[in-house]
Amino acid sequence: MNRDRAVTSLAALAQASRLDAFRHLVQAGPGGLAAGELAGKLGISPPALSFHLRGLAQAGLVRSRQQGRFVYYSAAYDAMQSLVDFLTENCCGGSACAPARAPARKSTTRRTA
Amino acid sequence: MNRDRAVTSLAALAQASRLDAFRHLVQAGPGGLAAGELAGKLGISPPALSFHLRGLAQAGLVRSRQQGRFVYYSAAYDAMQSLVDFLTENCCGGSACAPARAPARKSTTRRTA
DNA sequence: CAAACAATTAAACATTTATTTAACTATTGA
DNA sequence: TCAATAGTTAAATAAATGTTTAATTGTTTG
Predict the structure, then answer these.
(1) How confident is the model at residue A96 (pLDDT cuts 50, 70, 90)?
(2) What is the C-alpha R_g of chain A?
(3) Residues in contact with A47: Cβ distance below 8 Å, sequence separation at least 6, in sequence order
(4) pLDDT score for A74
(5) Which of A28, A54, A89, B45 has an alpha carbon within 20 to 30 A of B85's alpha carbon?
(6) Considering only CB atoms, which chain B residues are within 8 Å of A109?
(7) Are A79 and A92 in contact, with CB atoms under 8 Å apart?
(8) pLDDT tens across B28-61, in order?
(9) Are A79 and A9 within 8 A, CB to CB?
């Protein structure tokens, strides 16, 4: 993660419809949701959703796969985690401090909730 | 944390100068940095910095305290943590999944890096 | 192949956001 | 009190973003 990619990701999440969409996808799990289904849940028009999903996809926060005439979108958990790690990186100049959480790892962070 | 506050926070971070400013403050620790010092590090004009810090402060991501003729800004770690928790909330519908980290707690999250 | 459905693209418009220059407020100290 | 320093506010402009309606692409099924 670098500064510019982080800005792109944050901008993608910094809008009500897109944040709602992303959270719905995060909560839906790896299977994701079809675009139309998501538009219904969010109460926005298909063109508006398309516009917003494009932003999320360009930021790498969601992925899409086509299945028949449906397009399923799902959250990219790893991208979200990279973003979070970037924000807290080198917190307090490296000294121990309250807000620090588990340090960023290169491999998958396996930690059950 | 709620949806609208999250959008405000994300929007505050979704701009290069503001993200740089915030990260400098995160890394500076609780003491923070004087506005002018920060403007120098970021290479932006005092009015521009003022404009951006106002956005971060309104989002609750930074605090300021005046000391003589200097104004010191520091990162609000708790606000940042609330935002991160909100993004990963109820991940995968509650079932255990790779991206999940330590669950959000109401009290202070004490976990040394 | 034609009709219906799922989704994206295009174009026009309104709204927000960022940057710049100049003016202003407050604090320190000669 | 006057000049200098630190920072914010104001106003004007330039640039990016979001919303809407209509048209388009691709897929299934009668």
Answers:
(1) low
(2) 16
(3) none
(4) 97
(5) A54
(6) 98-99, 101
(7) no
(8) 999 999 999 999 999 999 999 999 999 999 999 9
(9) yes
Helix H or strand E encompassing B70: strand B70-75
* Range list of β-strands (E), chain A: 33-34, 62-67, 70-75
Q: Give A3-90's CATH code, choosing from 2.40.50.100, 2.60.120.200, 1.10.10.10, 2.40.420.20.
A: 1.10.10.10
Nucleotide nearest to A69 (CA to C1'): D27
Q: Beta partners for B64?
A: B73
- Measuring from the CA of residue B68 to each C1' atom, give the nucleotide at the shortest distance: C27
pTM: 0.86
pLDDT of residue A83 exceeding 70: yes
Residue the block writes with tokens 């924000």 = A87
pLDDT at A57 over 60: yes
Q: State which fold the B3-88 domain adopts.
A: Arc Repressor Mutant, subunit A (1.10.10)
The angle subtended at Cα A27 by Cα B4 and Cα B7, nearest 5°, is 15
Q: How many helices (H) and strands (E) does chain A have?
A: 5, 3
Beta bridge partners of B34: B72
3-state helix, strand, coil in chain A (%, to 5): 55, 10, 35
Least CB-CB distance to B87: which of A11, A80, A113? A80
